[in-house]
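Contributing new complexes? Match this layout with FE2/S2 (inorganic) cluster.
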Amino acid sequence: MSEPIVIRCRDNGPFVIKTPVQVVDHDGKPFTIPAGKETIALCRCGASKNKPFCDGAHNGCGFQAGEKAPV
Ligand code: FES
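Output block (do not edit by hand):
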């Protein structure tokens, strides 16, 4: 059995996922992930101009999210 996919919630930032991974739109069409990338970052603040990917806009929009998993 393969290892589960890990999605890391960055404090006040995106969801980070190790590659290989495929991100598809609502029709199932895949987004291009540049070759050689070891991780991708998915926007969760809503401010990225490159959704579904993070473009760093979370740094300037006041987005706050620092969830911690229950111990
Ligand atoms: S989380 Fe980075 S731009 Fe939205």
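Reviewers usually confirm one structural detail per submission. For this one: Residues 19 and 39 are 5 Å apart (CA to CA).
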